[in-house]
Design a protein that fits this description.
The structure is a homotetramer. Chain A contains 16 helices and 8 strands. Chain A is α/β, with parallel strands linked by helices. The first copy, chain A, has one domain: Homocysteine-binding-like domain (TIM Barrel), CATH 3.20.20. An 8-stranded parallel sheet of chain A has the order 1-8-7-6-5-4-3-2.
Chain lengths: 384, 384, 384, 384
């Protein structure tokens, strides 16, 4: 194994103006592969099926990712194994290892700053012991909790990135993206941005607002985006979780590789230099990011040996009309059909308007009882 | 490794009325993971990246598949490696290994029966040497070529399955599904059916027509279906290859797990007992087949440890309105939105009407030249 | 007023190869104007509000219609007034007056041939007294009843046209369109075709099948089509009545004038020479038929003084980007959006499979009772 | 004829809390009937075909409209005839006559306030001579021009209503709806609101913003809305004129009667009491407004003798499954299909960003030349 020290760190890269490609979300990809249970979404596969986790890391690396996020979790016993897997694969290429923390049930249940910070602190031990390259505070719906996380992570001396899962309307307390970003930078974040909950278009738009806020405040930061690989123009402020299709009917919303190239270009044009993904990303989505930005970066990812740019691999297809699709303008202008004429194109999101402090959000200790479910159904039906 | 002999063979299972779950297509799944190039679609990954191929085999096994098709190809040098990988994983569970042959450029170029049969014969050596459990002649658009394949495969003494990639309108020479099936059974096929090119609904409908033909002719056979995981109500007789979205814009057409459960039930009700998939299938699709038929089979696949039936895993979700989705009627009746309001729901397929013997279909030796491409584009544009 | 005698009769025109433009359906157009009640669909407006009926006749005449169908009905006392209105407007231009009969509750309730024929006979008196130019037996779902109608109409010595409201699957007894047409010609019809229930594409396709049947039988006839102005690709054999949108939610299905030009061209190419419309047609739809066929006919309808061909009237629009739409290829290739992203593009038709002789079809004497409605709702809900 | 004086004036009605139902737009309705040319959209039909204009007035009256807007135009010689027609029909029922002025080419071409006001002044003569009941300044994209119009109209001593054709983003100079409304009230308007350019949902939303602005400024006014009968969720600030479907492909966007009832209720709830329509409205749309508000008003319009509420007329339908649709919840929850699976649900509006003062907007004296059109097409194609 090559020692980590020979690689440039995340801030060295960003300071030098390099583009950093992030990886994709693990829980959705591994759910489809059979190793993560939707609902609890816990990462025990890192210990139970390391070969599956290693393989996914490897595919994202091959697709061009420069970051391997450890497949860890706040309550998990298996975080050591997860760190080792991420490091093992990172060392197979030009990638860094990032450890992450995310929003806590403690915060939603209105525990004190001290208690919430203790939760973050507890997760740091393994990251320090395994010497990850940098830290990410991600998937926060309330900027206040994210600030607390950044403050804890900063105590390690490692670079800290912070992403919220919010849209242009701001966090669930109504703090605007620009103000959120200022708070995060002031709390010590080196990189700020958006992850999860919304599609690339929405995320890039929101990061732009963050950037404007930071610049207006006379501060400096790097910017990152890790959006969904699902089209979500119909979301409300809580993102794709409120869509009726979440999480088992999202297929028709999956982005194509061409949608991803558009995303990479727009993110780049918006000044974002850490460009990755979240739920729904498959390795070919990540590869599309790296391919779109190959002219700026000067190289293609390893995985492009199996991918002709803009469909050029079809030049070898048996059928002549498929060969005729081997061109950029064909794919760039395609409006792909859903094959589902009995389905609508947009949905009305559920929206119960509950957030931090609401009794319904207290962490469930056991599976919801039949009576609780009945009450929920009635609420849901009235809501429509 | 457990000796193959301890497992029941494919015909023993089907004769006993058991349901056999097939695996999914490898080229599309591995293309998304970065190991297969769209266009040539060749399986060199079996040698170059065996861990990736092994992992996919394992995921399908875990999802409940009883068959591991070797990731081989008519021209490939690496078929030995592919057979070993399939056997290795099959031995980790209750699965058989199947070797397959498919339609040949030789046939499309109007080579003689002798020449075409020689192509099939050449592929048998490795299957015999590696002692696969049975053989599949699959992905044939002309029943005549499939008959030749069956005749060659039958010489091995192993059970033979034969599937065409046709729809209810019949093969590309206009032979009806019923007549196709009769010809295949008469050529020696033990199992007949449909694979690839069409969605589950169309494939089940076509296999039904095959079954009616076989029964009307006083013959007997087992039936199988290995459809796409894409909705294709708008296809013409040549299937999804003619859709403008093929192969890089098919995302909005991907079936959900609930669509798959519906397919499994309809296939079962139609008398099909070998129920699998083809292009577009991910392991969770295969798992859905095994879960739908768990009552008939008496057991769930290993992968169901990470999947609550009909969304029951959501009972533990933090958000109460997501918990309210933990019920069968919610997912069964869902009409998922595409999130793409600027896209249509159906496409007009390309249809150049060329088939066996047409000059445009001669195997390309080299990438299509710029001049050839220009000619194709003009043809394509006129066609619209 | 010019005497009728100076005009060429319907058969003279068709025998000479002329194109005859039919008018559109009155009940739907007058329902939107406030003079017909949906449900009973009766024509009392001819007596109660003659100015409204006269105005609609006049608009169709101005749009190019060569036929004024009397706004009459089998049970109506006001048929004299209706005939007078039709004649009054017909005499304002080059149009003929046609009296029509359509399917009867008597037939659905399994009355005898004699009883059904008596119903038709009773309606003839006013048509003879008012000396209409020809007769139409239209809107029949069972060819047997249409034959009876034709036999009765033929006794008048006037030319007889006969149209069924069926699609390519044939009449509700399963008689194919080709066989239906042969029966109608043998019963004495001079003109045969399709009206109502399906969109232009389906109707033209069905008339083609009728024409093939007639020609195969060595017979001769003229052909006519009077389709809906609604897109109905998702209908089953009973047509648009089974669509869940019937009759108060059909708006998104309304054809544009460009769709109508396409229809006129396809009907003409199929050998249809009596080209008109039915429910949903507004005068501008009829005008589009006359405009499309102006090159063949050598003249434009009067109403075209207020319509530039292919959007050319927009050359005078204030906004430059609207002026840019003043061209044929713009409108011909338009795929108009619905503005309804929460709606599907196709519906599942209701289909209760009841036809002639079923108790549910007996004519209602009084409004359905609350109990009957409740029973129907339950049936409907189970059906979905 | 009953003397006008016996009727309550517009302000008496609104001051008393009564609901006033407006009529619908004439140019679109008469275009479909063959009497108005799309592009110039001029009202010469009032003189050339008075029976057609009278009939449409009558249908709106019968549908419940309390206002007959004269079918007049700034340059038209035929305004006397138009006033007489409106008065004739108004006197047949409980309706008032309103004369209107709208935005002028003079303003777009940057003529002076004096010149623009002279244009309005010139149109007043006939309204005064014919003694219309009140005046409407409508269809203004720039509030400045609307203020000038109100100032001129106020000199007559008649009540003045003023509507802009803007959405929530404000007028084309970026003045917010709230500020626009304040300016109009300060200029002397008794009634303010929105007409044309957007669908009911957008118009009601915008009038709400106007009302908030007026109330915040401590002023008082009555409110009106006269929206399109087309769904336009995809419009930009210039409204439906920028949609690619304008004006000849709008059919799939037409509102149903149920959509209209929803509009009437929402307008009423928003405090709007003058509730009418604009382009796309047919008499049955207006009737739906009057029917929805019948409980508040205590009576149904005359036209409801031919309309059962919520589909109740279907209780008499022959087919039992159509009888099952005779209920409110069926129609209220319907998501009507377009029957157009090859079309999208939303469009990208053209948006050239030109407004007052731009050379392209100068009034065309003659039809656009072929060269001008060519230049426009090129611009349009580059824009996409």
């Amino acid at each position: 194994m090559a020692p980590t020290g020979t690689k440039k760190g995340i801030l060295e890269r960003l300071d030098a103006g390099e583009i950093v490609i992030g990886d994709g979300g693990f829980v959705f990809a591994l759910e489809k592969r059979g190793y993560v249970k939707a609902g609890p979404w816990t990462p025990e596969a890192a210990a139970e099926h390391p070969e599956a986790v290693r393989q996914l890391h490897r595919e994202f690396l091959r697709a061009g990712a420069n970051v391997m996020q450890t497949f860890t979790f706040y309550g998990a016993q298996i975080n050591e194994a997860a760190c080792d897997l991420a490091r093992e694969v990172a060392n197979e290429g030009d990638a860094l290892v990032a450890g992450g923390v995310s929003q806590t049930p403690a915060y939603l249940s209105c525990k004190s700053e001290q208690e919430v910070k203790a939760t973050f602190q507890k997760q740091l031990d393994v990251f320090l012991q395994k010497d990850v390259d940098f830290l990410i505070a991600e998937y926060f719906e309330h900027v206040e909790e994210a600030e607390w996380a950044v403050q804890v992570l900063k105590t390690t001396g490692k670079p800290v990135a912070a992403t919220l899962c919010i849209g242009p309307e701001g966090d669930l307390n109504g703090v605007s993206p620009g103000d959120c970003a200022v708070k995060l930078v002031q709390a010590g974040a080196d990189i700020v941005g958006i992850n999860c909950h919304f599609d690339p278009e929405t995320c890039v738009k929101t990061v732009k607002m963050m950037k404007e806020g930071v610049e207006k405040a006379g501060l400096k930061a790097h910017y990152m985006s890790q959006p969904l690989a699902y089209h979500t123009p119909d979301c409300n402020c809580q993102g794709f979780i409120d869509l009726p299709e979440f999480p088992f009917g999202l297929e028709p919303r999956i982005l194509s590789r061409w949608d991803m190239q558009k995303y990479a270009r727009e993110a780049y044009n918006a000044g974002i230099r850490y460009i990755g993904g979240c739920c729904g990303f498959e390795p070919y989505h990540t590869r599309a990011l790296a391919e779109e930005l190959a002219p700026e970066r000067g190289f293609l990812p390893a995985g492009s040996e199996k991918h002709g740019s803009w469909g050029s691999g079809l030049e070898m297809h048996t059928k002549p009309w498929v060969r005729a699709r081997a061109r950029r303008d064909y794919w760039e202008n395609m409006k792909p059909a859903s094959g589902r004429p009995f389905c609508p194109s947009l949905s009305n999101p559920d929206s119960w308007g509950v957030t931090k402090g609401h009794a319904d959000l207290m962490q469930q200790k056991e599976a919801t009882s039949q009576e609780q479910l009945k009450a929920l159904f009635e609420k849901a039906n009235k809501g429509q």
